[in-house]
């Protein structure tokens, strides 16, 4: 069996301004397949290498695969569909397989618009892909496809979904095969080193209405911290990785396991810097541990502050307050950790005043970095359904956090983009002139100057926020911005969207164990954390002064 994985060539000017990110999905799927005895696997990263259609066609034909697998998030879905169309033309006998979060929930629409796709993997794919490849290898495709749990396919012009596959219960058994990637290309601009995105836990017990990840992973499961550090050590030793970001939605949910992870990094003296995304409430909870996290190498925390106005926080089902956001940022900066504040803008009730409020909040809170993301209503999220006809753009290629999908009632999309850019200009100009050059010394200062370099590089190349593609050149051009929405794209019918999930929305807050369990996961971890003796990191037993814990 010859298996070919392809990452579609999609770019949006968002997170990639910081560098090229290694596609972790192919490493985890390949690891599962090789463990099952399927070792003839090739990977083409069309995104990182900017591979065009014709070069891709030749690469597929030369390899002559039996199975072609592609993944897709919502904005890259059309690119993914096109990749598999090319694959069917270049290797007609190959089985075309699509996975990822978008196809998981939108398989009805995807199969209708891309009938050349043979199978869609719904949900996390390690066990499903092995079952699918084994069935194909044994000659059971398509006769036995209805027995494969967790897939969807077209039959007589209709989408058919088999029974849902169980989630991977023993995630410690998953071993990623990172050797398929060309590591020379995966660089992190702020530090000038190779970057990786390993996974510590899957799922999230929180149910923010704009998010899809809690629906995709279904259960909250966490790996043995020692095994995660084993993987990081392998990435450093075998592939020269010098920085990593944990892929988890919130790696600090399980405090005990996260502390053990940090202690393991310290004990092994790996001396590697890393970053995470997490919630404000976890930072407040762990105030005394922040110097310990910094000692373990944590240098960058991206906080889901999301909105300046409490009204928006409530709409998004965030259990945080404006005052908590400010406090968490202060704590992180005091611990020598670079802190990034995330703001979601561009809802239907956005005004010039609310956008200015987010800027004033950013000035008051004093994060090191700030990011204004356009509200992007995933077409399978709860909030998308609730917004109804307020969503008028169904060109999913533009669902990328930098394109205004919702048109505010009080302004047009060009003005919205211009005012967001004005926030960026003012915030980073002040940081560049009055903050970063004097942000202490050592790692923290170098990191911030590296972030500034990444911003300047993306701005010079016109890649930041997709400005080059929409022809935005400043306030004078805001009335001429061209978002180039594909008006032929239509909203999916409700029956073509998988809305059903195993989670239940919480009644109120989420930090009580019982409520967290009610929202669909994490019972074992939460019980373990509550019942076991508290894990006391070594740093808490040392008589170190606060100054010894600062970034050097």
Strand and helix map with partners:
Elements: E1 3-7, H1 24-35, E2 41-45, H2 53-63, E3 67-71, H3 77-90, E4 95-99, H4 101-105, H5 107-113, E5 119-121, H6 126-137, E6 151-155, E7 158-161, E8 187-188, E9 193-196, E10 201-202, H7 213-217, E11 221-222, H8 225-239, E12 241-245, H9 255-267, E13 273-278, H10 280-285, H11 290-295, E14 298-306, H12 310-315, H13 322-334, E15 338-345, H14 352-365, E16 369-374, H15 382-387, H16 413-434, H17 443-460, H18 467-470, H19 513-518, H20 523-531
Written overview of the protein:
This protein is an alpha/beta fold and 552 residues long. It has 2 domains: 3-161, Response regulator (Rossmann fold), CATH 3.40.50; 186-477, tm_1862 like domain (pyruvate-formate lyase- activating enzyme, Alpha-Beta Horseshoe). It has 20 helices and 16 strands. The strands form 3 sheets. It has a 7-stranded mixed sheet with strand order 2-1-3-4-5-6-7, sandwiched between helices. It has a 7-stranded mixed sheet with strand order 8-9-12-13-14-15-16. A two-stranded antiparallel ribbon has the order 10-11. The longest helix has 22 residues, at 413-434. Residues 502-536 and 538-552 have low confidence and may be disordered.
Largest sheet: 7 strands, mixed
Q: Give the integer mean of the pLDDT values.
A: 87
Task: State the helicity in percent bands.
Answer: 25-40%
Q: Rg to the nearest angstrom? A: 23 Å
């Amino acid at each position: 069996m010859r298996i070919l994985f392809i990452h579609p060539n999609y770019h949006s000017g968002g997170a990639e301004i910081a560098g090229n990110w290694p596609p972790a999905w192919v490493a985890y799927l390949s690891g599962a397949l090789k463990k099952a005895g399927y070792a003839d696997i090739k990977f083409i990263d069309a995104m990182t290498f900017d591979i065009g259609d014709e070069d891709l066609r030749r690469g597929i034909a030369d390899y002559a695969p039996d199975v072609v697998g592609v993944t897709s998030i919502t904005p890259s879905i059309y690119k993914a569909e096109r990749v598999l169309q090319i694959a069917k033309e270049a290797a007609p006998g190959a089985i075309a397989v699509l996975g990822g979060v978008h196809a998981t929930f939108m398989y009805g629409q995807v199969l209708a618009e891309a009938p050349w796709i043979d199978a869609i993997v719904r949900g996390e794919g390690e066990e499903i892909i092995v079952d699918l490849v084994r069935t194909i290898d044994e000659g059971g495709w398509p006769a036995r496809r209805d027995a494969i749990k967790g897939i969807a396919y077209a039959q007589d012009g209709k989408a058919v979904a088999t029974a849902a596959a169980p989630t991977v219960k023993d995630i410690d058994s998953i071993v990623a095969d990172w050797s398929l990637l060309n590591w020379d290309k995966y660089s992190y601009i702020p530090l000038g080193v190779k970057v990786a995105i390993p996974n510590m836990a899957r799922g999230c017990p929180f149910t923010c209405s704009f998010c899809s990840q809690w629906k995709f992973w279904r259960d909250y499961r966490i790996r043995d911290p020692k095994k995660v550090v084993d993987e990081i050590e392998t990435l450093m030793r075998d592939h020269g990785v010098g920085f990593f970001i944990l892929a988890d939605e919130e790696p600090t949910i399980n405090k005990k396991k996260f502390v053990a992870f940090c202690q393991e990094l310290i004990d092994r003296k790996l001396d590697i810097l890393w970053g995470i995304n997490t919630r404000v409430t976890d930072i407040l909870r762990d105030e005394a541990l922040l110097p310990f996290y910094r000692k373990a190498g944590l240098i960058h925390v991206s906080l889901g502050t999301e909105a300046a106005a409490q009204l928006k926080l409530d709409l998004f089902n965030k259990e945080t307050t404006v005052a908590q956001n400010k406090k968490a940022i202060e704590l992180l900066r005091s611990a020598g950790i670079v802190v990034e504040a995330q703001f979601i803008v561009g809802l239907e009730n956005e005004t010039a005043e609310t956008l200015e409020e987010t800027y004033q909040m950013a000035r008051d809170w004093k994060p090191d970095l700030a990011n204004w993301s356009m509200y992007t209503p995933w077409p399978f999220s709860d909030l998308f359904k609730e917004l109804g006809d307020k969503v008028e753009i169904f060109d999913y290629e533009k669902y990328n956090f930098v394109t205004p999908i919702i048109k505010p009632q009080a302004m047009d999309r060009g003005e919205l983009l211009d005012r967001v850019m004005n926030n960026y200009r003012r915030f980073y100009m002040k940081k560049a002139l009055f903050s970063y050059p004097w942000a202490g010394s050592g790692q923290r200062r170098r990191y911030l100057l590296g972030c500034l370099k990444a911003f300047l590089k993306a701005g010079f190349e016109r890649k930041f926020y997709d400005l080059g593609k929409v022809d935005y050149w400043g306030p004078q051009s805001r009335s001429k911005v061209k978002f180039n929405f594909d008006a032929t794209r239509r909203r999916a019918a409700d029956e073509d969207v998988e809305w059903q999930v195993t989670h239940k929305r919480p009644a109120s807050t989420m930090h009580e164990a019982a409520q967290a369990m009610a929202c669909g996961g994490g019972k074992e971890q939460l019980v373990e954390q509550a019942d076991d003796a508290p894990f006391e990191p070594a740093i808490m037993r040392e008589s170190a002064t606060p100054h010894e814990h600062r970034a050097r």
